Amino acid sequence: MSNRIVVKNQRNDYLPQHLTKVLVISLILLVVCIAASLAFGSRTVGWNGLIDGLFYPEVDSYDASVVRQRISRTIFSLFCGVALGVSGALMQAVTRNPIADPSILGVNTGASLFVVSGIAFFHITTANQYIWFALAGAVITAIFVFGIGSMGRGGATPLKLVLAGAATTAALSSLVMAIMIPKSSVMDQFRFWQVGSVGSASWHSISTFLPFLIIGLAAGIISASALNALALGDEVATGLGVRTGVWRLVAAFAGVLLCGATTALAGPIGFVGLLATHVIRLVLGGDQRFIIPISAVTGAIILTFSDVIGRLLGSPGELEVGVVTAFTGAPILIILAMKAKVRAL
């Protein structure tokens, strides 16, 4: 008997047994991470300052002002975590690869190459310019990696996609360095962006990012049922009336859109989507109707918590969140690869 017991509701939908517990725990952790993000930093704010900053705008104390200044950063980190969590879930579902992630498949590096090219040759400086260059790089790189991974016998197997992504990442990273090193001004502008950070968050960057987040989330959630059918194989999915090519394209577009937009504004932050989706799949199973939305919450928790850890470890400065996620994510990736042996989903 499967260890994933399901119960049937009145509409004949099957719900994972632990869904309610996961939702409650996730929401509690999310609230804790939000409070920690507002309270901790170069200056630690107490409970009274936190309450005053959030609910009493007439209070003009220093602690309340610090909390208000951190609100935009906290919201931005939540949004970026949501986008990366959903992007990881979608990429794993589309490629049927349990260790797929924007950073592993080279999508982040493709976005980075286009951004550094935009800085060096087109003198881009604004968030709106960054986001379009990053999206173009993410889309082109995703198509290239999937095309390379699809060559040869067996098509796009999980192992071939990972190898194609690793090779593409190495090649594009070399191009990034080749463009950046000769130009010191480009290096200065790019190096802070490259490590991945939510420290430069502003209300303008949030408003720029929000439309892409909404479109990507909507497309991902709409494609969830079709992705469940695709997991059974293209022939079975077609027999069930699913237009496999269309829905695979929709899901891939949503994943790349979310990843590219996040990379443009926060830099290439890796491993969040991988970790968020794996945690949820271990607990709830493989139903994308639950994996996608709850991966969004889990991604927000992971990224916001990592940002808090970076601030605490680097105090009185801060350790960039991309460094924290890479430091924790790389060993976990190795363990997952060894245990899963890169099996298809």
UniProtKB/TrEMBL annotation:
<comment type="similarity">
    <text>Belongs to the binding-protein-dependent transport system permease family. FecCD subfamily.</text>
</comment>
<feature type="transmembrane region" description="Helical">
    <location>
        <begin position="290"/>
        <end position="309"/>
    </location>
</feature>
<dbReference type="GO" id="GO:0022857">
    <property type="term" value="F:transmembrane transporter activity"/>
</dbReference>
<dbReference type="GO" id="GO:0033214">
    <property type="term" value="P:siderophore-iron import into cell"/>
</dbReference>
<keyword id="KW-1133">Transmembrane helix</keyword>
<dbReference type="GO" id="GO:0005886">
    <property type="term" value="C:plasma membrane"/>
</dbReference>
<feature type="transmembrane region" description="Helical">
    <location>
        <begin position="321"/>
        <end position="340"/>
    </location>
</feature>
<feature type="transmembrane region" description="Helical">
    <location>
        <begin position="130"/>
        <end position="149"/>
    </location>
</feature>
<feature type="transmembrane region" description="Helical">
    <location>
        <begin position="161"/>
        <end position="181"/>
    </location>
</feature>
<feature type="transmembrane region" description="Helical">
    <location>
        <begin position="21"/>
        <end position="40"/>
    </location>
</feature>
<feature type="transmembrane region" description="Helical">
    <location>
        <begin position="71"/>
        <end position="91"/>
    </location>
</feature>
<keyword id="KW-0472">Membrane</keyword>
<dbReference type="InterPro" id="IPR037294">
    <property type="entry name" value="ABC_BtuC-like"/>
</dbReference>
<keyword id="KW-1003">Cell membrane</keyword>
<feature type="transmembrane region" description="Helical">
    <location>
        <begin position="103"/>
        <end position="124"/>
    </location>
</feature>
<feature type="transmembrane region" description="Helical">
    <location>
        <begin position="245"/>
        <end position="270"/>
    </location>
</feature>
<keyword id="KW-0812">Transmembrane</keyword>
<protein>
    <submittedName>
        <fullName>Iron ABC transporter permease</fullName>
    </submittedName>
</protein>
<dbReference type="InterPro" id="IPR000522">
    <property type="entry name" value="ABC_transptr_permease_BtuC"/>
</dbReference>
<dbReference type="Pfam" id="PF01032">
    <property type="entry name" value="FecCD"/>
</dbReference>
<keyword id="KW-0813">Transport</keyword>
<feature type="transmembrane region" description="Helical">
    <location>
        <begin position="209"/>
        <end position="233"/>
    </location>
</feature>
